[in-house]
Amino acid sequence: MKPLLSWKLFVVVFVLAGVLRLWGAFDYNIMVRDETFYVPRALHLVQYGSNGNRNWFHPQLNDIILAASIKVFGNNSVGWRMYSILFGTASIFMLYLVAKQLYPESTVPLLSASLLAFDPFHIFFSRTAMTEPPAISFFLLFLYLMLQYCEKNRQTLVLAGIAMGLAIATKAYFVFAIPVVVIYAYFRTTQRNNESKSALLARFAVTLVLLPIGVYLISYFYWFGRGHTLLEFYQFRSDAFLIAQNFQYENKELMAMGGKPWEWFLKPFAAGYELFSDGTAGRFMIEINNPLFRIPVLPAMCIVAVYAVKKRNVHWLLAPVLFSACYLLLLVVQRPIASYSAYVLLPFAYLALAHAVSIVANVFKREKEVVAISLIMIVISGCYLYPLATGFLVPTALYEPILPFVHLIRVF
Question: Does the structure show a pLDDT above 60 at 412?
Answer without folding.
Answer: no
